[in-house]
């Protein structure tokens, strides 16, 4: 089934892409939503250039759309209509268990006549993070919710010891509630590792972001 993957650059979209490919979906393009100025990813604060380097390493083309939050759905739908005109049949999404998220992706896909595929749905947040690490993917923490995690977490590579740290802190291991965001630089889907440099730390909207550059 000809498909696109909704792409944040982080661990959940990457693991959903992995499962979709394993299940036989033909993922032809990644779709990333950017800020209004077209410079950063809307959710994770990743530079557009970094996402391009990631797509190149994966060997999958990437397309972008820029929008403010109040125009997000309209911009997303415009891209989906374009994909549907190219005979795409499905979209791959990395949502795990938040019902409102599933309802939204199913609604926008249905509106253009495509199926919404959620390979990670109800698989367990802790088990998914464990699977991601054990498969050999490499992801670095690039954003943290300031009220929950301090800046010392930025730049840390996900590993199994973090599961216990997250549990001690009383927070969700997968960060599904927005506790933290990641950037994936290597793993079984990658032709080569994405080399990046860590830059300054930016603060906005209650988050601290580590700026990475390819």
Keywords:
single chain; 214 residues; alpha/beta; Rossmann fold; putative n-type atp pyrophosphatase, domain 2; 2 domains; five-stranded parallel β-sheet; four-stranded antiparallel β-sheet; 6 helices; 9 strands
Explained architecture:
With 214 residues, the chain is an alpha/beta fold. The chain has two domains: 2-117, Rossmann fold, CATH 3.40.50.620; 125-213, putative n-type atp pyrophosphatase, domain 2 (Alpha-Beta Complex). 33% of the residues lie in helices and 26% in strands. The protein has helices at residues 11-22, 48-58, 72-85, 99-112, 125-134, 161-169, and strands spanning 2-6, 26-34, 62-66, 90-92, 115-117, 138-145, 180-186, 197-204, 207-213. The strands form two sheets. Strands 3-2-1-4-5 form a five-stranded parallel sheet. Strands 7-6-9-8 form a four-stranded antiparallel sheet, with helices on one face. The radius of gyration is 16 Å and the shape is globular. The mean pLDDT is 94.
Neighbour order of strands in the largest sheet: 3-2-1-4-5
Report the CATH architecture of the largest domain: 3-Layer(aba) Sandwich
What count of domains describes the coordinates?
2
Q: Report the total helices.
A: 6
Report the top-level CATH class of the largest domain: Alpha Beta
Indicate the radius of gyration in whole angstroms.
Answer: 16 Å
Secondary-structure-based class equals alpha/beta
How much β-strand is present in the residues? 25-35%
Q: For the residues shown, what is the average pLDDT? A: 94
Beta strand count: 9
At the fourth CATH level, what is the homologous superfamily of the largest domain?
Answer: HUPs
